User: Fold these one by one.
Assistant:
Number 1:
Amino acid sequence: MAFCNEHFLELQGAYLFAEVRKRAEAYKKQHPDADIISLGIGDVTQPLAPAVVEAMTKAVAEMGRMETFRGYGPEQGYMFLRKAIAEGDFKSRGVDIDPSEIFVSDGAKCDTGNMQEIFSDTAIVAVTDPVYPVYVDSNVMAGRGGKFVNGGYERIVYMPCYEECDFKASLPVHDPQIIYLCSPNNPTGTVLNRKDLTQWVRYAKQTGSVIFFDAAYEAFITEDDVPHSIYEIEGAKDVAIEFRSYSKTAGFTGVRCGYCVVPHALKLETKSGEMVSANELWDRRQCTKFNGCSYIVQRGAEAIYTEEGRKQIQATLDIYRNNARVILEGVKEAGLHAIGGTNSPYIWLSVPEGMTSWQFFDFLLDKAGIICTPGSGFGPCGEGYVRLTSFNTPELTRTAVERMKKALKEIK
Ligand code: PLP
């Protein structure tokens, strides 16, 4: 008999978004005529930019000709894209990242979930509460969670984020080795400004911890004081790994492409006190377990960095930004308290008094035909909130907001 990895048995319930989908489907079965609008799962709705489609079409044609056909590509990504990233995402902001520090992948979920593999299985992990569930679950699977007691894993350090502190975490009391930070944040939509990030980089240096900086929503930043990359902070290359995604930036949720930056300066320690390069470990990991993102997709991603591509994706991002504004204004008009939506596609909404997150989820589904994501699914501090997303068409967003306002009037 083969033994299972029992760490998997410590995982709690169904994956949040799967649970949301399951409940919504059950409702649709009972109410087949219900007209439901999803402001729940964070998937995009707008099509790819024409420049991206054109580049991918050209790449497909190349694949169909003997002279230009390509088989396996480099596991780290094609140099044309790594150079475009170094130039377009970093040099343009005064940050010097070498293409050899960039690893192209099929998205940030895999990267944020897999990066923990190059760390010791005894490493202490710190996450914010509420949190994007992938950070926690991937560490639980690897055995860093311990038992689930009183709403949390005993070996994970939770950094509660309360409304009084703008949903920003304080420095942890017990020093962890890995710290997950997400800015702009999923689910709260809040951001870490230059001062906040400087404090985190300083802390990581002092304690020898490594920051996993998830910047999947970087493209939504509108305020000047909010860094787009943690490497805009001096010294961050010694202590941080950054994750980026084209999913929300350029509608790549179904295309699949993202990247992470593992700086050469970042060193990890062996038990015998030797220092090893995190970049080399990740390179070895990727070469063993990953065969690269497709050539066609990487040509599509490269097109985002052209002048035309950049303009086109900004036009799409403006649609989502405007939707976020419409939602934020609408829920405020309905008398609810909400934050986010300014530097983020997410609006973090306080549920009406006396309701839990899941009760409000059921209320919105039943009375307004709206799907949201219950905040409690992101951690105990998410109880009392739901997350709404701006990833819908302007028409459906407006309809959803009107329906929400009407439904909320009824409970007043
Ligand atoms: N990181 C955060 C914070 C996310 O919210 C998401 C997707 O929802 C991801 C990473 C995953 O992105 P990708 O589609 O690139 O895998």
Note: DSSP finds twelve helices and 17 strands in the chain.
Number 2:
Amino acid sequence: MTCPFGLPDGIPALGGGPDNSKRDGSGKGMGENAIEIEGVTKTYAAAGNQPPKEALAGIDLTIPRGSVFGLLGPNGAGKSTLINILAGLVVKSSGSVRIWGFDQDKNPRQSRASIGVMPQEPNIDPFFTPGALLDVQAGLYGVPKGERRTDEILAMVGLSDKKDAYARHLSGGMRRRLLLAKALVHAPPILVLDEPTAGVDIELRQMLWGQVRKLNEAGTTIILTTHYLEEAEEMCDEIAIIHHGSLLVRDTTSALLSTIDSRTLLITPDGDAPSTITAPEGVDLDRRKGGALAFTYRRAQTSPGDIIDAVRASGITIRDIAIEEAHLEDVFLTLTRAQDAEAPAA
Ligand code: ADP
Ligand code: MG
């Protein structure tokens, strides 16, 4: 078999988790970043009657080592384009990308060996068995036969009993697992997952996130895209939102959430609530099914105490109280709508 790229010197093909000390490239200016993206643009060439399409307008982004990093944005924002550039599947139009310290253009083999990608579109040859597929993939990455972990990886994704089944006989969920397995054969220090849970059932989703957490705990840097914002909120330490090929914001998940000023206070009355309740000024009242009263307020303007006082003054005995926190969805909608208002999509 031809071997388009072997593992660079100093990169152990396999073993207990990524060895950071040995995986650094020149190390110059790399610091603790897994990925450094500078001024990256991508314009897809015109094809047929389709005009050229600018998918990335100039992205600067650094992703720290060890993090679980979320890349979010509406459909067509350019997420897969950016990820496919990192994976070496799409050629950028301009800019520079460093992966684990290796410049993608100057050290293509080393930079590729440092990253494993589970793509959005399944790219599995239906005539291969999972066992053979992982073997071929390991060969492509120059992993010596004696060091391949095919059985271990298949067990990890729950496909041990399918090792010798033809890929075309695997269910959609099993193919997703196989894609994850493929991304892991060369034990990359960076794992990228593009919409890994789109359209999968709850069981597979939990399995995927369980594996991702374990890999991250063992030191793997994780980069993922998802359009399930609750998932990003739960999984990611840091988040970048891209929209129309530009970076809108990049911050820790908690900092992004704290930018949302509105909160909802849920009050369950003891018995039926009266039909008129006077809420403090600027507070919205919504009656939920089951009788709970939902007061949405701005933290800068109103305190929960003001609302509780107003409820008591309306003659209500309070049985229970809860606060609904802001969600990433609120941040996402606020930011993307603001940009759309500024510069409507072409
Ligand atoms: P996302 O993953 O955020 O949904 P993509 O990176 O897939 O976004 O797409 C960004 C934009 O580039 C979209 O407008 C899409 O139609 C366009 N695009 C993606 N791939 C190609 C391609 N191979 N040729 C032409 N245009 C493309
Ligand atoms: Mg995509």
Note: The first strand starts at residue 33 and ends at 44.
